[in-house]
Design a protein that fits this description.
Blueprint (H helix, E strand, L loop, with lengths): L4 H14 L10 E3 L4 E6 L2 E11 L2 E8 L4 E5 L2 H15 L9
């Protein structure tokens, strides 16, 4: 299959129009052992997402690097997103752009 350069430009314009980025925090998740995803940024590990069973429900536990629970989620995608958002918030100032 061969793609035309125009396809890349069109995809870029669609992404800008919909506000959807091509990267998702799931891409920062490295699985191992099975059912446990380690969230990483560059060379830094910042948390875990684990499959858990609570009674008859299966979900995902997002926890910070030190083991503190961030929250429980019904999807891996939501857990990874929330953990990544928390990681980014830890690296920014509270308040508006001008402090």
């Amino acid at each position: 299959m061969k793609h035309d350069v125009q396809d890349a430009y069109d995809a870029y314009r669609r992404a800008l129009a919909t506000g959807r980025a091509s990267w998702h925090p799931m891409l920062a998740a490295i699985e191992g052992p099975p059912g446990v995803w380690r969230m990483t940024a560059q060379f830094e590990h910042y948390g875990w997402v684990r499959i858990v069973r609570i009674r008859d429900q299966v979900g995902y536990r997002a926890e910070l690097e030190d083991g503190l629970l961030l929250a429980h989620f019904t999807s891996l995608r939501a857990g990874a997103s929330a953990l990544h958002a928390h990681f980014l918030a830890e690296h920014s100032r509270a308040g508006g752009v001008n402090g």
